[in-house]
């Protein structure tokens, strides 16, 4: 008989002999038809098993190349999730300490400020962002979701890069406009520098995801949709040119009801 089961993003198939009850005696086993001889070495060479101790695996066509092994000792590193934008990346009104997400061993953070600046530490809510404000944003839940799809050799690191009341316009001498050289603080340049520091920690580190949560400041400044789209497209183009064309850029929006109230 064959029994298939799924673990995370991987599917395994086990082949066993079939127990058949004899007409009058105890249960006996009848082996299945013989197949071609294989060895652990040949299976590993063919990429059909993750480890010599694991059974042959059915590979999902969409995931086979990414998750070729259950644990790849040659690719131990951390995947960065950069959280960029304004205050909704990391704080709002109050912190419900009774409902904070529990830390997880495979979710890290690499703060840009505070006592643990530029240090890879276990992520603990509230996240530390550029402005040091205390609150809750979506980045931990996003990290907790994506880490479930990663093989065991990959962790996730949150890079908290948000700054309250900022946008592509210049506000309080700060801007996210990548091409602005007049503002006192270019938050895009600070974010890129922090991402680069994270990547320098380990040659196996990568940045597959950026979560962008911003828009209120530019809406209040009456920036047109076309102008905002041009700024955002420019940022995405630059980030993908720097970190890879496959970079996932997730845009988190405010509710339509809140946008209408601005």
Write a structural description.
The protein is an alpha/beta fold and 262 residues long. It has 2 domains: 57 residues, no CATH class; 189 residues, SGNH hydrolase (Rossmann fold, 3-Layer(aba) Sandwich), CATH 3.40.50.1110. Helix content is 23%, strand content 23%. It is built from 6 helices and 13 strands. The strands form 4 sheets. It has a 6-stranded mixed β-sheet with strand order 8-7-9-6-12-13, sandwiched between helices. β3 and β4 form a beta hairpin. The longest helix is centred in the C-terminal third of the chain and has 19 residues. It is globular. 27% of the residues are buried.
Short structural description:
The protein is an alpha/beta fold and 262 residues long. Helix content is 23%, strand content 23%.
Measured as a percent range, the helix fraction is 10-25%
Q: Which outline best applies?
A: globular
**CATH class designation of the largest domain:** Alpha Beta
Separate helix tally: 6
Q: How are strands sequenced across the largest beta sheet?
A: 8-7-9-6-12-13
The total domain count is 2
Q: What assembly state would you assign to the polypeptide chains in this entry? A: single chain
Distance between the termini: 63 Å
Number of strands: 13
Strand content: 15-25%
Q: Kindly provide the radius of gyration, computed on alpha-carbon positions and rounded to a whole number of angstroms.
A: 25 Å
CATH architecture designation of the largest domain: 3-Layer(aba) Sandwich
Please, what is the CATH homologous superfamily of the largest domain? SGNH hydrolase
Biggest sheet details? 6 strands, mixed
Regions with little confidence, pLDDT below 50 for 5+ residues: 1-30, 36-69
Mean pLDDT: 76
Structural class based on helices, strands and sheet pairing: alpha/beta
CATH topology of the largest domain: Rossmann fold
- Element order: H for helix, E for strand: EEEEHEEEEHEEEHEHHEH
């Amino acid at each position: 008989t064959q029994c298939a089961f799924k673990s995370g993003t991987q599917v395994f198939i086990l082949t066993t002999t079939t127990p058949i009850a004899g007409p009058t005696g105890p249960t006996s086993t009848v082996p299945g038809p013989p197949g071609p001889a294989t060895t652990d070495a040949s299976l590993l060479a063919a990429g059909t098993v993750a480890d010599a101790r694991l059974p042959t695996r059915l590979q999902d066509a969409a995931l086979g190349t990414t998750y070729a092994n259950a644990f790849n000792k040659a690719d131990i590193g951390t995947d960065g999730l950069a959280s960029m934008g304004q205050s909704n990346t990391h704080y709002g009104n109050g912190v419900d300490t009774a409902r904070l997400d529990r830390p997880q061993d495979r979710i890290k953070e690499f703060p840009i400020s505070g006592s643990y600046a530029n240090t890879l530490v276990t992520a603990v809510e509230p996240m530390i962002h550029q402005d040091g404000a205390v609150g809750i944003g979506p980045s931990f839940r996003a990290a907790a979701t994506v880490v479930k799809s990663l093989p065991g050799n990959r962790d996730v690191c949150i890079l908290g890069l948000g700054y309250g009341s900022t946008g592509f316009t210049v506000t309080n001498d700060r801007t996210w406009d990548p091409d602005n050289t007049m503002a006192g603080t270019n938050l895009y340049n600070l974010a890129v520098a922090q991402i680069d520091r994270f990547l320098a920690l380990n040659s196996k580190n990568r940045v597959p995801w950026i979560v962008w949560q911003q828009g209120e400041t530019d809406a209040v400044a009456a920036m047109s949709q076309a102008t905002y789209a041009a700024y955002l497209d420019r940022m995405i183009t630059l980030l993908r040119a720097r970190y890879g064309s496959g970079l996932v850029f997730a845009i988190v929006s405010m509710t339509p009801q809140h946008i209408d109230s601005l």
